[in-house]
Amino acid sequence: MDKVDLELDLKGLKCPLPVLKTRKAIAGLASGARVRVLSTDPMSVIDIPHFCQEAGHKLIARETDADEVHVFLLERG
């Protein structure tokens, strides 16, 4: 398992809250810090990668588990 500096459990939140909360949390971290984001919002599979691309962060991994929880591993740019 990859080392993470922060885990955000955003399950149950609907668009645009997962991206807004991720943006706020990642802003306070140092460059290179890793964040794991957990979301049940189907739109997050589009919104989180798009946010990373626009904001200059790196999307390291994305997967969806058996419970339809989308798990993202981000690295702050």
Strand content: 25-35%
Corresponding CATH architecture: 2-Layer Sandwich
Strand order of the largest sheet: 1-2-4-3
- CATH class reads Alpha Beta
- The gross shape turns out to be globular
**Per CATH, what is the topology?**
Translation Initiation Factor IF3
Number of domains: 1
According to DSSP, the number of beta strands is 4
Span from first to last CA?
A: 21 Å
How helical, in percent, are the residues?
25-40%
Radius of gyration: 11 Å
Number of helices: 2
Question: Biggest sheet: strands, sense, closure?
Answer: 4 strands, mixed
Estimate the mean pLDDT confidence.
96
Order of secondary-structure elements: EHEHEE
Organism: Stappia indica
Protein name: tRNA 2-thiouridine synthesizing protein A
Family: Belongs to the sulfur carrier protein TusA family.
Pfam family, one: TusA
